[in-house]
Amino acid sequence: MELLANLLYGFDVALSPANVLLCLAGVALGTLIGVLPGIGPLPAMAMLLPMTFYMQPVTAVIMLSGIYYGAQYGGSITAVLINLPGESSSVVTCIDGYAMAKQGRAGPALAIAAIGSFFAGTVTTVLIAIFAPTLAKVALTFGSPDYFSLMLMGLVGAVILAHGSMVKAIAMVCVGLVLGLVGGDIHSGVVRFDLGIPELSDRLSFVVLAIGLFGIAEVMANVEVKEGSRSLISPSGRFWPTAEDYRASWRPILRGTGLGSILGVLPGGGALLASFASYALEKRISKSPGRFGNGAIEGVAGPESANNAGAQASFIPMLTLGIPPNAIMALMVGALTLHGIAPGPRVMSEQPGLFWGLIASMWVGNLMLLVLNLPLVGLWIKLLKIPYRFLFPSILVFCCVAVFSIGKSQNDLMLAATFGLCGYLLVKLGFELAPLILGFVLGPLLEENFRRSMLVSGGDLAIFVKHPVSLAMLILTALLVATVVFPAVRKSRDEAFESEDA
Amino acid sequence: MKLRAPTDLIGGVLLFVFGVAVIIASRRYEYGSLDAMGPGYFPTALGTIIAVLGVVLIMRGVRHHTDIVNLKHVGRPLLIIGAFLAFALLAEPAGLLVAALAVVLISSHAAHDFNWAQALILGGFLAAVCVAIFVYGLGLNLKVWPG
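Predict the joint structure of the above. Result:
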């Protein structure tokens, strides 16, 4: 009953006019950037971060989260109609979604994707409401060694799930950790690595780093490749799925939701991993795997439900432990920190309005998305025709003004440009930027908890295995590492990423 | 221009240099000991890990000559940075409208199908939108017009 009261309280917060309006703005913008290839939720959220200074914290997180799960809906439209993933988590939707569109069944593909996403969103909202409070209560008993081991596990997970070279991913985490240490040291008050730039003496600004790495660097990488010609298939004929379609889809939707909820919570997980895993699962257990790739509706229903479930489930570790499982959640941590809220187990008791309001807003947002996507799909198709030469200057202008609006500082702009250049270089050299941003967010926390553990134990590293929770985390971390070291698992990891590149 | 070198080799060298730089910079801060870590302890440890990973990549890069960096089209990305720098230089003295217009006009050249008229219209439109959102919407005290 407490759960019901909490949820009702959440809906009370989420349904205030300002929150409903900005939730709508968030999911609409999310759908837009999901539809448009070449811009993802990360740069969009980074650009909007400075604007959230001027909002209530709860309104800010409601809008930012709307962008993330909204993008999961929008991404499927592009995948089905032009065989391009509008969003990286919709890569697998292209396979069977586009095949369905070619057979004149674009409508049912889009509809089942939206319905599956909505179902997954509803279930995950309830799951968060049930499990988050319990997890937060457990987390309140965690000591410094436990937190250190937990963060270590998060970072190791991010490394393992990064594409490509693991050495490079570990290096990126460490570079991120160093960047996170820039500014005042809590214990000694010494200002570290400020390079004589006043903007760095406090802490490296999250907005500057995120816009540099995910706004500027991404545009730089995108303008280098020539825009391919797109052949848009406009949906014609029957829009709603047939009874046969529903019969084939309800199990994949259920399985995708379950898979997404589990994979979203794991360190390094989220929407992307969930959609791949779901596609692989559906293909494996199907009685007629040959249909996959030729317009099997299960190949759309499963992954699209899974990516939305994964996106929302990844809020659980962020909200309850303060540990972001992926780069987008790292950005949410950054947004909360801007408002002076330290994400962690105390958010639920100290900011109940924010906590329950956000959860309730997810369901409200999902409902809006269902309406935005099904009847208004024609509008989004029109937006698909916007050429990239109009898009990237717009992205760039908003990046500039966003950075400038933080403190009207030329140094901030120069720093963002530097990070843009570095980010572009790193991408060209085959490094991934997501582990870097995770390291950046966790840097100060990792140092702080390690230091405190060492202070308590008098420099005895054994403290990490003496604390049971910490020991459990370390064992889990070791298992994560083992999965990669053992060749059998390593092979399937490589296969998963191979199919992604295809 | 075409620079042909293995990505691992270049990436490794960059990492190594960064790691060593972090170690050197950390020497200015007190190191302390494991039971009482100073502000220099953690960064030194991280710098060391980064430098070691740099060496690992260098060795891998020397052994395999597979991935090659192609800088043939590097002009377009550099235009993007140029546009951003133009904004940095213009925003304070010339105001938001001019700076935003400059960003669009410069960066649009990076498109494969550039068109002056379209770029001007887009620039004017975006400049106006930015002023509307940030100056009038959010009430930020930013300079709009030159002079």
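The CA atoms of residues 100 and 126 of chain B lie 7 Å apart.
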